[in-house]
Amino acid sequence: CYRENILKTAKALVEDTKLLVSGAASSQDKLAQAAQSSANTITQLAEVVKLGAASLGSDDPETQVVLINAIKDVAKALSDLIGATKGAASKPADDPSMYQLKGAAKVMVTNVTSLLKTVKAVEDEATRGTRALEATIEYIKQELTVFQSSEVPEKTSSPEESIRMTKGITMATAKAVAAGNSCRQEDVIATANLSRKAVADMLTACKQASYHPDVSEEVRERALHFGTECTLGYLELLEHVLLV
Fold it and tell me: For the Talin IBS2B domain, which residue ranges apply (predicted)?
């Protein structure tokens, strides 16, 4: 029942995505209607996903987290898409903002597809861990793209904060190695959830610290380089766990 509702609502959201993209080239009224429609649809989708997560029961919290993370990714992608649509409104087809819009739309569709795959996998205990890991790998890749962009963070933090956040990577790495050894679905799901947060926190702290007023441009470049290298190394580790 929940799966059918999620599927139906997700399809509606994909249609809203198409309207948002086409709305950038049309009137402000059509754009506003498309934005409002997508906002309503994502609210409905979040509700049915939460009901689906609740139906799993409290004895499987890690899988509930996987579902909630999936809808959070879709909501974030929609927010980014609406922002990109606003930036591209009334611009010519070859304007850089139009390429950003297409990129945001692609991420949006990727995340909706990922949500549907996750919902399907939840019904099959044998694939839950694999799917959770695949979703986390996709999420980390998207976070790395944001990290590597020229966008300056809204706030800065101290280098000490960045160092503190690397401890989460150490813990998640140990968890990933243990999951690769045990191959138990629950261990793999827990690893996926922990990895997602650890890497995202590290990337945020690293970028904020690299833009601290006391940091030179040379040190900033090195910090951003090693933040990328750390993430790529961790992605390789997760790929190996997935292979196992």
Answer: 8-119, 129-241
